[in-house]
Amino acid sequence: ERNQADVSEAKAGRTDLIFLIRFRHCCLLRNQRCIVAYLYDRLLRIRALRWEYGSILPSAIQFHMSAEEVEWFNRYKKSLATYMRSVGGEEGLDLTQDMKPPKSLYIEVRCLRDYGEFEIDDGTTVLLKKNSQHFLPRWKCEQLIRQGILEHILS
């Protein structure tokens, strides 16, 4: 506001204010660039959360997000799901699986909290109760490991 008032005075003939106006304008542009860089970094972090936690964010993380960020996350989630359905044939391709190359197809996991029945592709169901250990296909468990329901037991 002060800058606008000084611009009006400079147009009226006070040329000594031009340097002050330019300085303030440069400061405003710098602040704008910093804010845009901050917001872009937050969007990159929110995008990484989709890959790390899956389509449902923990409430502790979602609590610290603004309404616009939650809306952006939901749009990104839908866009990614649409893309994954469009590639890989009839069932689509889940790109969020196997974030690291697997060393084996089956892993030993321990259940950290009660989850209930968990169905594997061959039709068998496993009851995931707290502190129970199972030998399950890696690609079926990876999402539950990221959500904190299962823990990979390293031998």
TrEMBL record:
Residues 16-87 form the GINS subunit domain. It comes from Penelope pileata. Keywords: DNA replication, Nucleus. This is DNA replication complex GINS protein PSF1. Residues 103-154 form the DNA replication complex GINS protein PSF1 C-terminal domain. CDD domains: GINS_A_psf1 (cd11710), GINS_B_Psf1 (cd21696). Required for correct functioning of the GINS complex, a complex that plays an essential role in the initiation of DNA replication, and progression of DNA replication forks. GINS complex seems to bind preferentially to single-stranded DNA. It is found in: Nucleus. InterPro entries: GINS_A, GINS_bundle-like_dom_sf, GINS_Psf1, PSF1_C. Belongs to the GINS1/PSF1 family. Component of the GINS complex. It comes from the Eukaryota. Its main location: nucleus. The keyword Secreted does not apply. One of its GO terms (cellular component) is GINS complex. GO terms for biological process: DNA strand elongation involved in mitotic DNA replication.
